[in-house]
Every structure is written in structure tokens, then in C-alpha cells.
Amino acid sequence: MAPFNPPNTVLGGFKERPEALLVQGDKLYIGTATGSLFIYEYNEFSENGSTLVDTKKGLSRRPIDQLGYIKDINSLVSLSETIPTLYPLPSFAPPKPLTRAKGALTFAVHSSVHNLDQSDAQGGAHTVGRTGPIPTMVTQLLVGCRRKVVIYTWKDGEAQEIKETILPHSPRVAVFLDSDNVCFAYSPTEYALFSISKLTTLDVVTPIPANISMGTFSGLTGYMTLGLGARAKPGLVRLSDTEALIVKDNQGFIIGTDGRQTKPTTIDWPSPPDEVAFVNPYIFSILPPGTVPVPENGSSLPSGSTPVAPQSSLIPSPVVQVISSLTTQSVQTLPFPPTSSASSAANCTIRLLTSSPAAKAPLFLVATPSDRTVATSEGSSIWQIRMRSWGDQIDELVQRCLYSDALSLLDTLDKALLPDKDQRRTHIRALHAVSQFRLGKFDDAINSFIELDLNPAKVVALYPERIAGRLSVPPNDWISLFGGPTNQQSLTPKNDDTISTKSQNDSNESKEKLVEQSASPAMPVKAAVRRGTAFVALLSSSKDKDDDTISISGKKKVKQIDDFSRSVDALWRYLTDRRPKVAGALAVVHIAPAQSHQWPFLSETSIEELFSLPNIPLPLLTPEQLVRFAQIVDTALFKSYLVTQPALLGALCRLANWCEVSEVEEELRAREKFAELIYLYNGKKHAKALNLLHQLSEKETDMRDKLDPSISYLRKLGPEYINQVFESSRWIFEENRHMAFEIFTSDDVELPRTQVTDYLENIDPSISTRYIEYLIDEKGEESAAFHDRLAELYLNMTLSARKRGDEANELEVYSKLLRFIDTTDHYRPDRLYGSLPENLYEARAVLLGRMGRHEHALELYVYKLKNYAKAEEYCKRIYNPNGVTRSIFLTLLRLYLRPTDKAAPNLLQPALDLISRHSPRLDSVETLQLLPPLVTACDVRPFLQEALRAPIFDSHVIRNIHKARNEQVARKLMLLESRRVRVTDSRICPQCHKRLGSSVIAVHAPRGEVTHYQCRDAFARRLVDPVRR
To answer: How far is CA 536 from CA 409, 530, 856, in A?
Structure first.
């Protein structure tokens, strides 16, 4: 990846020697060796270079060593003649030397916003009307002098007290980490951390360089760099608020505020860098000519440069090397200056790496010809290196399958710099997870899939066909499936995720080859040292040998788990995580697995449609998309169990699920797992489940074992499967009608009652009557339609039995009919009466009574049935002394004594029995008039005695007396309420003899005297006591 564009010239032909650069806004400040300051105006994207705006000749008598800018006071800081001086902009007058920092060697500027209380913000003075902390801009200028440090501070442009402290050494370079921590470089090998608040220093501790531990080769690096010259200053740059990079020899260490390494890895340069700079997140370093190998295929070279000849493996010109601070690996190599002529490129020096404080700002450097004559005639040139857009950098990393690097780069960016940061992060994390999956890091990959809410169809597609089915995708198409580049499928990621996927034998073989190469005298020593792999390989090989020896001696055999088993274990974890969450999302929209038949099957959906399902959180999916997710998850879970853990199938099948039956049906049949297959059919393909149960029943001999499974299955089917129930239950009725009836008595579901009744009547009317009886008795059915139908069924069954001559069955059914029409009120008797034949007298009598035709009903009991007891019971049942049936006993007596049927026998005795038993319910006068003349008084003696015991006073007289009394009381009340008194202004209270006026009064009975309310008691005593009166 090349994160930076080829360098371009900002300023050329600069005759004086630049010693300091500063970029601030659109201004470029150049301090020279003669003490002059040149100010240029430049545009980062302009091709016209820079325009000279102003020149400050003789700003200092000696070279300007360092430039800085303090925004809080809008001043330029110049370090020259070991004294820092402040120059107000834009006038540069009056200059303010910082005399307390005399003997300065370096300085650093840091600005930050602090929430200070009122006393700190205003120097002890309280601000009226303002409470709470006040945001304050605090700028610090730290000047490193000989064996001391001086700190200048401004708060919102107001100077504060100057701090000064002694140091053990003189700092050559200083960089701020944050507002309190500063890193010092005393020398190229000595570094320290300084706390401003505590005014204390802490030495930086770094591990011994790796090349020191290599014995014979320990002095190799120093020997190779003897002729490269000494570096002018130590290498030190700030990386973040908590990290800084220090350079020791040809190694770079990233340290934290505690003075220790924050990353175990180091940055290795082929030789000590001359200078280092930082443009987040890249580290720039200037390397001397002839120290940097030529990149392979010139991939990192600028487009305008030409690779050197193959026989030369090192670049002969100075090089600017770009290293990623995230991976500590080189990402770009820029030979300098970038010209097509290799000879001219080698004759220049580059220095003064200067970065702008703004984010993603270009980096500047000065290139000067090495030849003094050429330098005098052509002068120096200032170059800028501009960074490519963040999106292009990330896209290139993704194109090269460097997903970890892309994610690390994304983490350093603010969303304002990359508006689609979240979308890119999700996409790259998915690709990274696929890369991890390919490399055998199944658990890490599955964790990412779960966190990203990825489409489960794509996750399942990473598995072979026996688990993923038609969703399976070849490994070469995995990246493109997840939206990655299609032309890089076979590229193995070259990052920290890369692991060996070869077998153990291949691994041992490669180690042996590596040891042989390292032991070979033909192998260059420097290459072995630079790689650092030979020694590691020897240690690794020795360790492996020791492990094998221990394993053999201890006779311990460790079972190796293959990649497929580990991948399936990870898949189980993914699917079991998705399954309850998808079920919960479906429950919110009121969709259950029992409704799976209402949705298209997974096999009916195209693969393209399944892969196009969105990668969003489950609550944001549509109901149809949720159903697809549920089908994919359950089907994959079922197939993974089937392949690796068949014993777990039963538990999964018994649960409500969305598994696609067609994917596993044949496999289950082949393994004769019929119970699991039936459970799986349930809710999806009931016809196949019932047919399978029918086939399995043929192997059973016991009737209960033969029919119970089918009956239990049919009892669970709802009304939407009514036709299936009817079709599959017929063979059960043929086997055993009594057991088959249990199908329609389920408490879990209820089928359409009318359709079930029709179906059962076609099979056998007696089963239909049993079903309606069950509805009425158990389910509380009260509709007239079912009651009428039950009565008609009873009637038809009675007539059918009579035709067959089956008297026992006729009597049984006819008794049910009589009991039914006599005890229930929910049928329509007139409708049934029209269907009755003439010879069913008792049924006709009951129906006539239901219709209110009591006399005709009694005629049937008396004349046709000659059952006088039932006639009397009938009268008892409907008798109501205050209703229309109060004379029902008299009607029966009249039928006895005045028969309407000429063929009726003499019924005097039943009539006398009726009179003796029910005399209170018979009218005495009418009863005596009905009796024949020959009936003696002795025959009706109990009746006459009861009649003579009637009360003397009629209740009507009593009512009239009460009415008269009520009227009398009402008249008296009206008279009393009509009495009133009149109070005038002149009326006097008879007790106190004062005028009543508007006072509260009391009226006394019976003559109506009026007194004051307070005089009422005294006057009342006078009325009672005649003496006082």
C-alpha cells in the first residue's frame, strides 16, 4: 500500500541554507543559517508552488535553529543564539526575548483546553454571575536548556508564573505527550519523561537490542554504519497523548507515560535514521543512501522513479521510509529526490522533516545537492508529501486483504474525516472474520459474525454442502460473497492473522529446511541477522522435539480435533445464539413456527434472494426476512447435528422449529430415524407425517400401539388442516371407531363443529350423535342448530331401528330422544314436531307441551298412552299458581270426567284420585260442577274438608282497608303541611318581648307561636308548665 502520493516541489532554487521549517495555516516559514526568515504563501493543492510574501533579513545574527507558533498569543517562537524569542504576528515587533531560558537547546509547544474553576481561570479573582468550571485555553512553551528546563504558560492569552527546574542532563529534543508529560532526548541513546506538575524526571527503560544477544554478530551493525556519519540530533516524535517513539541505533521503541514500552514489537530500520517525523498514523524516517533494499517489483517506488539495476540490491540515494505506527511495518519507500536519473538522485541530502499540526496535512522536507558547487548554483528545494484520501488507503488495504491494518487505520480516524466510517468498519470486520475463518480461527470469526448481525445465509455458506446444502460456496468465492474484491480471492492476508494451515508434517519439514539454510555457509550473514528467523527456528525445533519426547515418555496420547469439528462447534455456538433472538423477534410480530405452512418454504427461495438479505439488527427486519433467517438457522442447526451429533436430533425436533424438511428428509429415512422425521414433519408436511405413521402402524399388533400415534398427531392439527384430518382419520375409523372418536375431542385445538358433524354422520350417525352430545355436555354448546340436529338424529335412528326390527336399539335411542326433548330448551319443537310420525305419542306429547298446547298433550297421555301417572307428573311439572297453567289440574280432571274421545273408557277413578291428591290446586266450585251426580260425598270427603277450611275474610277486603288507612294519613299530613306563620317587622317575641326582625326563629306547636331561636327552650317550658304561663 502506498498511503502517500509522490512528492512534489513546493519551493525550488532556494539559495540560502534552510535550518528550520514551520508550516502554519497557508504560510511556510523558513529560517536560514544566516539568521533570516523567509515567509511564503502556499496552497497545498496548487501546482504553482509557493509565493514569497515577506523576508525578515537579519532577524538573528546566528542561524535560526527552530521555529514554532503559539496560537494563544499569535506569536512566532524562534530559537537562535541559544535564546528563544517571541515575535508577534504579523508585525514581528516588538520582539520579546525569553531571557530566563538562556542557553536553550530546544523547545516544544502544547495547547489544550482545560475546565478550570473561577479562581484558577482568573488568577484568584472570582467572576460575578458565573458558576461552575470555565473552559480555558492553556498554552505551554517548554524550553530545554543546559541542565534545566523552563516552562512558560498562558491561559486565554494571559501569561502565568514561569516554572523552572534543574535536570540531570541537557535535553536536545523535547516533545509533549499531553499537558503534563514531556519526553526528553538527552542523547541518541538516553531518554527521559518529565512531569510538569511534579517537576520530576523518569528515565526511559528499553530492552537490550536483539542483535546484542547474538554473540559473534553483536558488533555488526556498528561496523556497517561507521562511515555513515553521526546524527545531528536524537530521534524522538510524539505519536499520541500517551505514546512517543524513541530511536536507539536502528531500532524504534514506542513508550508510554510510565517510561516503558507499550508495544512488544519494535521498528527495525536497516540503519539508524537521520531524522524522524510523524503524520498520524505514519512514521517518516530519513535513511542514508545505500542502506535500504530495493522493494520487490518496485511496488513502493514513486511512479516517476526507475528501479535500479538488478545487480544492486540497495537504493543508492537517500530514502524517506514510511512506516505504519499501527503495525510497525514499512508501507512505502520513497527514494529522494524522485528523479529518473539514479546518479543525480544519489548526490543530495535530505533533512528537516517537518509535519503540519493539522490532521492529514502534508509533510515537508529540504533537499540540498551534496556538491557545493551545484548547491550554490541550484540552491535547495522544499518538497511536500501529501497523503492520499483515507478512503483510498482503506480500499487499497482491503484490496490486498490486509483487513487488520484497515481496521486499525479506521480506529484512528474521526467520523468527520470519513463519514461512512461505521459502514466501512462493518464491511471490513466481516471480511476480516472470513479471513480468520479461512485461517482456522473459527471462534474469533463467529464472534465477529454475531456482533455484526450478519446474514446467516452467508455464514452458513462457508461450510461444505453436507451442512450448508445449496447455500455452500467454494472458499475462493467467500470474499466476494461478503462484498470483498473479486480479483483477490486466492490472496492470503499478509498480516498478523496469517497462520500456517499445513499439516504437522509440512510444518516440521519447513523447519528442517530453515535450519539447513541457516547452517549453510552460503547464506548471507546479514540476511540471517535481519530476518531473525534462523535462531527462532532452532529454538522452535528444539522445543517441538522436547515436547515430543515428553509425550512419548509419558505415554500420553492427546486426541487431535480436526478443523472441520472445530468449525462445526463454532457454528453451533453461532446458531444457538441466533435461534432464540430470531424467535424473540418473530414473537414480537406474532409469528410462531406453527404458522410455517403459511410462508414459502426455503427451498422455494432462490439463493440470490437469500444472500441479499440485509446485515442489520433483527428488530429492523421485516416479518418475511425474519422467517427466512429462522428457516436458515434451524435448517443449518439440524444438518450440523445430523452430521456430527445425531443423538441431539430428537431434542431439536421436539421443539417448535423452522427447519426445511426437504433438506434432511432422505438422510433421516436412510438412518431410520422415523421419530425425528415425524417430529420434523409436524407443522410443515402433515400429510407425509401421517402417511409415515400409517406405514409404521402396519408393523404393530396391539390396537392401542397401532392407532395411538396417529390419533395423538391428528388431535394436534388445527382447523386449517381439517381436510387432512378427515382424510387421514378414515382408516382409523375402519380399525376402531371408539378410539378414532378421540381425534375430535382434543382440548388443545377445536375443529369446525358443523364440518365434523357432517363427516361423522357420513361414517356413522351414532358417532355423530356422540359428538354432538360431547359438544353439549363438555363444551356447553347452546345453539339451536346442533340441538335440532341431535333430536333429528335420535329420531332417524329410532325409525331406522324400528324398520330393522331392533327393539332394544329402538328403545334405547327413543329413550334418549324423550330425555333430550324433555330436559333441554335449546331446540325448536315445532320443527321437530312436523317430522314425527303419528305413532310416537309420547314424543308428540312432550313437543305439544313445549309448544304450549297442554290440553292436546294431556289427551295423548290419557287417551292414547293411557298413562295417567305421566299425565299427572306432566301437570305437576308445568303447574304455576300465578301463571297460565294454574288450571292445568282442572283441565286434566275435565279430560277424565268429560272425555273428548268417544272410545275413552270410564275414568272416574283416576279423576277421584286426582281430586284427593291435588285438591288445593283445584277450583272448588268448578270441581263440584264437573263431578257426576252419582258421586257420593264420602268419595270426595277430603276435597270437601279442604274447601270448607277456606279463610272468612277475602284478601281483597284487607287490601281495601289498608288503602283507606293510607289515604287518611295522607290527608292529615297535607293539612299539617298547609299551616304557616307570618313574621313582620313589628312582631314581638312572646318570651323576651323584643322584635324578631331578621333573627333566626322557632315556631311552636300547636298554636304556632314564634320566638327567637335562643328563646325556644324557655318558651317551650312555659307552654308545658301552666303555672309559668
So the answer is: 30, 12, 118
Edge to edge, what strands does the sheet with 244-248 contain? 236-238, 244-248, 251-255, 267-268
In angstroms, the Cα distances linking 974 to 732, 959, 1009 are: 87, 23, 21
Q: Closest Cα to residue 540, out of 498, 500, 493?
A: 500
Q: Return the closest-CA partner of residue 144 out of 81, 85, 101.
A: 101
DSSP 826: S
Please state, in angstroms and rounded to a whole number, the distance separating the CA atoms of residues 443 and 1010: 106
Instruction: Supply the Cα-derived Rg of the chain in whole angstroms.
Output: 56
CA pair distance 476, 470, nearest whole angstrom: 16
The CA dihedral of 590, 593, 595, 598, to the nearest 10 degrees, is 110
CA 843, 848, 854, 855 torsion-angle sign: negative
Give me the phi and psi of 97, to 5 degrees please: -70, 140
Largest CA distance in the chain: 173
> Using N-to-C axis directions, what is the helix angle for 703-715 and 722-735, rounded to 10°?
160
> How large is the average pLDDT for residues 200-223?
59
Three-class secondary structure of residue 166 per DSSP:
strand
pLDDT score of 948 = 63
Give the C-alpha separation, 263 to 260, whole Å: 9
Tell me how crowded residue 708 is: count the other CB atoms within 10 A of its CB: 16
Measured on CA atoms in the order 164, 168, 169, 171, is the torsion positive or negative?
Answer: negative
Q: What is the distance between the terminal CA atoms of the chain, rounded to a whole angstrom?
A: 131
Residue found by looking up cell 274421545 in the block? 901
pLDDT digits (tens, 9 = 90+) for 1-57: 688 888 988 888 898 999 999 988 888 999 999 999 999 998 877 666 788 999 999
Most trustworthy range by pLDDT among 137-141, 382-386, 421-425: 137-141
Q: CA dihedral in degrees (139, 144, 148, 151; nearest 10)?
A: -10
CA angle, residues 264, 391, 276, in degrees to nearest 5: 45
CB 742 within 8 A of CB 756: no
Contacts 24+ apart (CB under 8 A), 290-296: 290/314, 290/315, 290/316, 291/228, 291/319, 292/319, 292/321, 292/333, 295/333
Distance CA 22, CA 56 (A): 15
Number of residues in the chain: 1029
pLDDT interval class at 562 (50, 70, 90): confident
**Nearest alpha carbon to residue 270 among 290, 250, 253, 249:** 250
d(Cα 59, Cα 76) in Å, to the nearest integer? Answer: 12
Most confident of 112-121, 441-450, 479-488: 441-450
**Distance (Å, whole) CA 709 – CA 729:** 12
Cell (9 digits) for 221: 551493525
Contacts of 474 (CB under 8 A, 6+ apart): none
CB of 147 within 8 A of CB of 168?
A: yes
The set of residues, in sequence order, having a beta carbon less than 8 Å from that of 775 and lying 6+ positions away, is 753, 781, 786
Helix 390-399 crosses helix 421-438 at what angle (to 10 degrees)? 20
DSSP state at residue 388? P
Confidence (pLDDT) at 63: 94
DSSP 314-339: B-SS-EEEEEETTT--EEEEEESS--
- Three cell numbers written together for 258: 510510565
Cα separation values, 637 from 456, 650, 652, 702, Å:
11, 13, 9, 37
C-alpha torsion 990→992→993→999, nearest 10? -90
Residues 6+ positions from 258 with CB-CB distance below 8 Å? 193, 202
